[in-house]
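Running this now, will post back.
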Amino acid sequence: MNVQTPGPLALETNAGFRTGADFLAHLAATPRAVFVDGERVSDPSRHPAFRQAAKQLASLYDFAFAPENLEIMTYLEPETGLRALRCYQIPKTVADLTAKRIAAEKWAELSFGLMGRSPDHVANFFTGYAAKPSVFAKSGAQYAERVVNFYKRLRDKHLYVSYAIVPPQIDRSKSASNQSEPDLYAGVVREVEGGIIVKGGQQLATGGVFADYLHLSSIHPLQPGDENYAISVAIPMDAPGLRLLSRRAFATQATSSYDYPLTSRFDETDSFVVLDDVFVPWDHVFIYRDIELCRDQWWKTPSHTYGNHQAQARFSTKLRFLLGMAKRMNEATGNDGAPPVMVQMGELAALASIVEGMLLSQEALATVDDEGVLWPSKSMLYAVMALQGEINPRMIDIVRELTGAAMITLPSSVKDFDNPETAKDIERYYRSSQMGARDRVALMRMAWDFIGTEFGNRHQ
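Update: finished.
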């Protein structure tokens, strides 16, 4: 078999900043194998299932590198003397970690916290790897060198990485090596000149449609005999043999931005990853057939804490948006001062404050290890992650109760405003004492998009 080696990624920036136009041009210039609704999509930036999310991601780069935002969104990298995205900063002090959180919040605010795997998420994992190369060196000095070099490439080129680190749900009662076929789970199948061949399936590549690279590894426990699956590698998204099977693209169901203001803009999509004899050069192999190191990459480096510190900043932003939306709905109907409503709003504020307080506690209780690397407080991080599954649905339930029947008695679409037979009724009966019918319906449409649509439920 002839193994095709992918060339260098096109249109990467070098010493300059990456603009939104650069990002979109890169998507167009690196044909990938994305499948949605039976169609192969090579350029997500132009397909209706993905183009609005691509534009939103592009706007993140424009925001980060705007002159007025440089101090918040970037830092001066001592090694190069150039600015890099704040997510790639290895924190040495609490002030560094706080700066990373503020930058994460600024990006999250642009999507109301609804794009969970923006470019700063997996970037923080690689920052954690680069912070502790000694962990990778236990398997050989070359692995530490490779992961640090790849981190520097991501940092200096302002690149976007997605990850697939969970095996398929085929037979979870058996280990990876005991599945009915040896290449069902993603793993190495052989060595070739210059690298390895990987084959199998892996999930859940959120945002992978738009990324520059895929980080392929396993966060699930592996057992003796599973060595072929104990890898950590990076693969360019246009690599031959790499296919992404996208879930239903919610954006294609969004008939208008008025009726679906969130779905139409922020659906980053999730994808199942299929690897069909994909070549990975040794330079992009960071862990190779090492079960212990495959586990330790998450827990003996700060990768998992950095990545989830960013995720909790995004989650806190989302809850603040939900709280503000509930406040605005109450104001629209004039019941903002009703005692029962005030009680429920108080609970919403309390729950959002718990998450925010525990996020800040990760910084206040951070520790510095013997190599001078700052770690967010693990106890605070994992405590709030454990509570997240209770806090989020409770807040959703409260908002649903506050709205009563308002979300399910809305006009069918914005087109009803254009029909003279219905427009008069809508203007009369859907108004409130604080706003006209069109604005109030738009507000309730946004609430429904957050709570009741497929997109909204994806975030619960």
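Residues 1-15 have pLDDT under 50 and may be disordered. More later if anyone needs it.
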